[in-house]
């Protein structure tokens, strides 16, 4: 490494949905800006996908990955502790280990970028006097909420979910209370307090990177930049915003597994891909309804399936045990649909699948990585949000951007019936209305590409970020 080369350390919180965007950002900085990138990855001991992914990624020459060993938080949680709180605790407990890693580095990073659950690093960044940026790996709308919640916290009495009117953040789409992020569902739960702290921490960074792009959320980004009320409540003169997306993984292997070989034999845009991300689960009853809905639609499908869980939809986030599919799918389903679809247990190569020309729709939990992977391939969606900020993503995709349809009811609250699923699948995949939605998704794909191409808004925004990091060198 030459002495003038910038060194950026990026800290990622546990979980594939966090690790993936951090690695993608790291790769972009290393390959497009000749920056030395060190990823500090806080891992969980239970995720084999995570371990495998880290192993593969560490083989690349462009970035160095230092795994930060997982910590035991069992003494701090019980069975009611929400995933959001657990992630905050996991990072909080890992802070001494992270501090030691930074202290022992020969070439101290010139800047720290931290993802959403790692904003608690602030005192360490300040101790070492390292400029710090937060990476919010989803939308401008969701970060507007995280920041603006300080205002709601003071102005709203009682529970948000009891409000008769939508929440209004200046300049943003009104937020229906049914679509609020999970931490706002119950003000007495620890995750509420953690969420409020997150918003305050965000405001203390030297800049915030967002995995969105100007054309996708023009009004929200503008509002975020010009929100004077927010600045005065947060008591910060400024928090520069860098919309740098849509950053996403590109196809990594040339190996054609069973799913890809099956897709090779299907018609153009004829297959619906169904997946609920790295940790989403459905109830036993919902899996049965979904299976029937797919079967009744007579549409080709690839369904990545995880055993049912009748607790919270994110309860497999840290713990995903496999179980024989026949035990929980409707009797005879696998036999009856053997020429119609593939059911893949636990994990599939999603980027390769969504990039395949046979895929014409994605029934998704609307995790932001999955959403970005769908949009950058021009694939329209059936938005089936489960937890975290996914309901906001679904609302934006269906109501503002027009690239998705949604069930009438919230899947996180009630069972979506087979007839509705059949109807949505047919509508998206077989009707002119569905064709219109696909056209919009294809236009959005072009806009996403333009944003990251030379001279595009996100490409410029990353350059601005690098310039800012350089300007802060001691
Ligand atoms: N993923 C995958 N195969 C799977 C499930 C998920 O490759 O079977 C990847 C997916 O491509 C995405 C990430 O895992 O990059 C999931 O992130 P997302 O933000 O969509 O959801 P989360 O898992 O965080 O809920």
From TrEMBL:
In terms of PROSITE patterns, this protein maps to:
UDPGT (PS00375)
Q: What class of enzyme is it?
A: transferase
Task: Say yes or no: keyword Nucleotide-binding present.
Answer: no
Where on the tree of life does the source sit, at the highest rank? Answer: Eukaryota
InterPro entries recorded: UDP_glucos_trans, UDP_glycos_trans_CS
Q: Which GO terms describe its molecular function?
A: UDP-glycosyltransferase activity
Q: Which residues form a coiled coil?
A: none
Per UniProt, the keywords (alphabetical) are: Glycosyltransferase, Transferase
Pfam families reported for this sequence: UDPGT
Enzyme Commission code(s) on record: 2.4.1.-
Q: What PANTHER family does the record tag this protein with?
A: GLYCOSYLTRANSFERASE-RELATED, UDP-GLYCOSYLTRANSFERASE 72E1
What's the family? Belongs to the UDP-glycosyltransferase family.
What is this protein's name? Glycosyltransferase
Give the organism the record lists: Anisodus acutangulus
